[in-house]
Amino acid sequence: MTTHAISMQRAGAGADADAGRAGFGWLLRSEWTKFRTVRGWVIGMIVAGILTVFFGLFIAGNNNTACGSPGGRQLTGKACLPYIPHGPGGEVVTDSFNFAHQPLTGNGTITVRVISLTGEHADITGGHAARVGSGLMPGLAAWSKAGIIIKQSLHQGSAYAAMMVTGSNGVRMQYNYTGDTAGLPGKVSAASPRWLRLTRSGDTITGYDSADGTHWTQVGTVTLTGLPTTVQVGLFATSPTYYVTNRSFGGNSNQGGPSQATGAFDDVTVSGTPARAKWDDTAVGGGGPAGSGPGGPAGAPSGFTKAGGTYTVTGSGDIAPATPGPGSNYPTATLEQSLVGAFIGLIAIVVVAAMFFTAEYRRGLIRTTLAATPRRGAVLAAKAIVAGGVAFVVGLVASTIAIAIGDHLETEHGLVVLPVSVLTEIRVVVGTAAMLAVAAVFAVALGAVLRRSAAAITIAVVTVVLPFLLATLNVFPSGVGNWLLRVTPAAGLAIEQSIPNYRQVASAINPAMGYYPLSPYAGFAVICAWAAAALALAVYVLRRRDA
Amino acid sequence: MLDALHAEWTKLRTISGPAWLLVGVVALTIGVGVAAVGATHCPAGTQCPVDPAKLSLTGIQFGQAVVAILAVLTICNEYSTGMIRVTLAAMPRREVVFGAKAIVVTGLVLVAAALAVLGSVLAGHLILPAHGFTAARGFHTSLSYGPNLRAAIGSVLYLGLIALLSLGIAAMVRDSAVSIGAVLGLLYIFPIFLAFVTNTTWQHRLERWTPTNAGLTIEDTTGLHSLAISPWDGLGVLAIWAGAALLAGGLALRLRDA
């Protein structure tokens, strides 16, 4: 680098230091000076932060729940919430099922043969709204389930391990709400029954299945720490809200209604406990037959019968983590719903970032800049770092405020904000800031390639915002929407997903509910790849073209 | 006025940018529409809650961004190059200049939009029946079906109104980057908010009164009874937005120094 170039840089940076220290640090400093001395850009970034917080809180504060009996006192907000059980892992859970149980003290084993799983669900054929109370029609939900369970206590949210047959997911071993392991595939019937077994040994519970009652396969084993000496063991049945099978067409038109499942068992043996013929029937969390819960008709039939050696258990509800969207029993909200304002923040940031490069062309400043620093790639890198750094700081401050206040507002308005670990919360907040930073770098690079702000801004905004929008609208089948959310820069929004896609809860992959088809870091890698490709193209173009 | 129109027409046709952007509107709209209908199947025996017209016209969501660029640049390039001073010296009646620009740009956009919409609808008509969206199952893809014709004509007008809205905003803002940011925000943010808001009062307001949510109801051909606003009223709401933006832009042009 010539002395001439160095002196020009130093003039640009407005600093006086050793000439020997000239290098990338000085370049960064001169670009930072350019950025902070243009009032419009600074205002633009501040506006980006304010819009992110304002619109995030507007959305969070406008969700309101109301309840109350017709003609009776109307309640709103928090007063509407039922008891919200939390699982052993701290997550909010749904824990409603019908339970025919006995106490089990110490170690022991329960073995049953399941001879049928039948069910009824709301009649919502034809895609019409659920006609609740209009009667049920035969059929199972995909995750209707019946089987055997060892549970810490009858309290909702207590630890458990269960072996079950399901509507269309074969035999499963599930435990502590989030755990799910597949066993034998296929549907259960009298012609092809399923034998299930759970064995308790200390804190360890092991599940087995068998198609013939003699050849057993271990499905899984789980340690339930702190399991008391006496636990409840028995037969259960439950069935989640039934949805019309338009899961392939996005989430907005989902029509749901209640459903119930009935499991029929024989050859029931419980060993290891003082033999007891009596079974107690408890509808845990109001999980009796559909309609028998609070608000249902009084004197609803019991969910448990025993005739000869055959036991039948009928229940509704679910034993699963609570999820965002209509699949949950509670009005749930996710952490990241308070960050919806980041979309408008993104537009403002992209505008400033693109101008940060294109303004050099408009004023002819690019010739001065490149005379001072002939290494064009370094100029681009410095601009990208400054724009990305500012966007990161703005995004970090804005998303921290939006989540802190937004969660509070949502809780006050009667939503259950699904809790996540501190690490996940940090990933959501920092990830949102990082996504805005990468979008800013993408816009700087596009500005360098196109030299025109309008085109650069449009590409940066449309490739992030529009795939998200099209995936949330109900125009496409969700397969197409998911594909868009995998390959376009919009994939980066996955970094905001706080609740995993639990496969044991039927839910449409709809980004408005907080679900993305890619894992958070894979999605973030996609937008980074786009920014890197744009940067590479920009370096190539900058070197090849005259300024 | 004719002179003004002629001048604006000459300005637009003698640079290559606008022509490419118009080609972009047509190509992007049809391309996305073809991809959307090509990727959508309705297997026998399943329920497909798909609006064939809306699906075929998915490309409008992209095409409108290119229309916005064209309209914004028509105004903002005059400011960034200083051409505006020459223009206003030659034609001191600023509202005439602005009107001529609006007529020429909107006219060109309407022509491109007509081609884009025709291509998209034709693609839907040729591809969708083979993918299970047959008339026997209640899906109409032909333009002879009344609602489809309304959706097609309305979509052409929709893009014209987007051009006018963008022109108005650009005349107010003058800077191309800030203008395009404002237009894109106006077009895309409200539909995203609509996806997140669960409060039905606000859902209803967003559906009825925001430019894209209301304007694009013109493409709906199924479930019309459940729309928050009727298709033509929805387009009318967009026309109000465009009219207000034009008025504000025209006033800004008249009252401020160039």
SSE order of chain B, one letter for each helix or strand: HHHHHHHHHHH
Specify the number of helices of chain B.
11
**Proportion of residues in extended strands of chain B:** under 5%
Number of domains of chain B: 1
What does the radius of gyration of chain A come to?
A: 29 Å
User: Count the strands of chain B?
Assistant: 0
Question: Your description of this structure?
Answer:
The complex is a heterodimer of chains A (547) and B (258). With 547 residues, chain A is α+β, with helices and mostly antiparallel strands. In chain A, strands 5, 6, 11, 12, 13, 17, 19 and 20 form an 8-stranded antiparallel sheet that branches. The two termini of chain A are 19 Å apart. Chain A contains 10 helices and 23 strands. The N terminus of chain A is likely disordered. In chain A, 36% of the residues lie in helices and 23% in strands. Chain B has 258 residues and is mostly helical. Helices cover 75% and strands 0% of the residues of chain B. The longest helix of chain B has 34 residues. The radius of gyration of chain B is 19 Å and the shape is globular. The model of chain B has no long low-confidence stretch (mean pLDDT 91). The chains are: A alpha+beta (547), B mainly alpha (258).
